[in-house]
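User: Okay, second chain of the day. Same drill as before: sequence in, structure tokens out.
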Amino acid sequence: MTIATGCLAGGPAKPATTTTVAVAKDDRKPTIDAPDAVSPSAELKTSSVVGMLRTTIKVEGRPTNTDSTEGFERKVSEKEIEESAGTFGDPSRFMQVLPGVVSDNDQYNDFIVRGGNPDETLFLVDNIEVPSINQLALSDTTGGFVSMIDNAAVQKMTLHTDAYDSKYDQRLSSVVEFSTIPEGKTVPHSESEIGIAGMGGSRSVPWGDGSLFVSARRSILNLLTDDIGLNGVPIYSNALIRADRRVDDKNTWWGLSLTGIDSIKIHPSPTDPFETNPYDIHYQGWRNTTGLNWQHVLSARSFGVLSVSNSEQSQNVVEDAQLLDGAPIYSEDTRDGVSTLKYDWTLQAKQWLTVTSGGRASLDRLNYRVDQPLGLQNPYSEDPAPLDAMALNRRFAPFSSAAYGQASVLLPHGMKVVGGERLSQWAITGSTIWTPKVLFMAPVLGRLVHAGYAEYAQLPPNLYLVAFANQQTLKPIRSRQITAGIDVVRSSHVGISIETYRKRYMDYPVATNYPQLSLANIADTFGQAFLLFPMTSAGLGLAQGAELSVRYKPTSGFTVTSAVTYARSWYSGLDGVLRRGNYDIPFVANIAGTLALRRRTVLSCRYSQTSGRPYTPDNLMLSNAQDRDVYDLSMINAARSAAYHRLDFRLEQSRPIRRGVFTWHVGLDNALGSSNFYSNQWRPRAGDLGVLEQDQMPRFPDGGIKYVF
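Assistant: Same drill. Structure tokens below.
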């Protein structure tokens, strides 16, 4: 069957020269990435990259970036992730080296895109929304030690930041898409591996006119050490089952189930005078996302994708105060669930016009039991007494929905306009918000230029939302962003692009009893006592920056990439005064290189350097008098640490053995042993010694083996 389906994207450089392509019987699934301007005789060819909704077309003219409906997308292959130094082969850690992306702490794989918080990113795996892809992800975070997704499953990863499509569920900063469906025919093969990220394996086999993939992994660090710098070691396991199948010429389905189970016990020494954390913390959690997609070709120019999914997340946290004879000060037994139904429809109405529309409905299930029986000594308060004692027991199921429409119009002279609108409704806060998007692309002096405007909105984290009376005072956070960029050079050997952005935040959650404090400026709480505040949506924010991306590949065996970002972010509390955000790191530079040597050996390295982290210094007079951290609220994030720098190496060699290929690798993270600042924390058992600097990852070995057969 030959399918001339519609597309989400724009036209090729020379749309008049097209070649008709007959669809082979084993081509599996129509996806969407074809130009929306083709000659009447052109016929689209189905391809197998499902979940990313793309289609391909064979043209004699070379495609350009106008094939996209947004600004520059960052596409990453599985090979790039695996061979990169300093990432343990983890997709989320690889994201930290891309332009506009900042690492929260290199001991975790959290990342922040263009200001804000880590939870401002939406994750999709094969078109299924996944609340968190990481192990050890707390209610208010999205990051952990490693991802639940085995790198062997990843075929392609895409980061969307510039005026991303209206079809995506709303996030303030970015969307990360994973595709696990292989392109072309599936060759049966298995992998087994062991490394720092854990031990496990995977199996991929053809299944009728489709494929089946299964993988599983378990951590091993707890077998090697009892402390990775947190006074504990994470223990985790995960599994992924993914299948796809072409039913007939018009129908294709694909689906997955992703599961993670994890725990950690943090037990600081109660006799160490230099210990800064006086809390014992026990954490256990699990999460699962299961979803199914059905794609149906409606006509020669339209098709639709129906998706249904369910996600569950449960966690149990208990914190005891060592300085209070082990008294329980915080306990959490929470369970989140969300069932989602969505439909996306695409129509190529004209050669120059593509229309997409759809809707989404979800039922959130919240079951929260949180107790803070004694309250906590709060570093933001000058009062030494424990504050904000609370008991929360909430169980309810709010509904949310959304609908969108988007049009892509190809104009003369290679220009293009994309416009969209999304209407979102959240019953939990009684909010309804319209969020428009418009993007213009044009070739200028042979270089592609784009400019866009977009608005986005999302709810604060559920735990903050349901605590105290915050449900009545908080509403969705909104952002308005202007973006622009230029493709300076694009050839087979060199690629250079420049992008700029300016993003304004509104209705940001701020503390009601600390007028200087915004949710964007609350210190990291992983491994420390959890902080909850009465909050209201009265904060503002501003994030802006410029990004330079360079890729140089003079030969097939040598690649150098560089990403340099200059970015600033400020957020206000209830008093309206803009202050540096937690992730206001003006300068970020990553330079990575990969060199293929003889005998199937690959050497890779990465050097990272950033400005120092902002932090809030202590009010030393009060801190010394009360023997605890008391932050100087007149200087929230006013101080900045020394610059961060880190050098990583990785050496890999593969060799055929018997029926497969054996690969080993060794590496060294932070090879220079840099002492990179993370935070200052008080030593409550050290008399008048005061604060102690907490550093990020020390020099850390990497290594592992893999057998593919």
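The helical segments are 78-83, 91-95, 221-224, 462-466, 470-473, 620-626.

User: Thanks, on to the next one.
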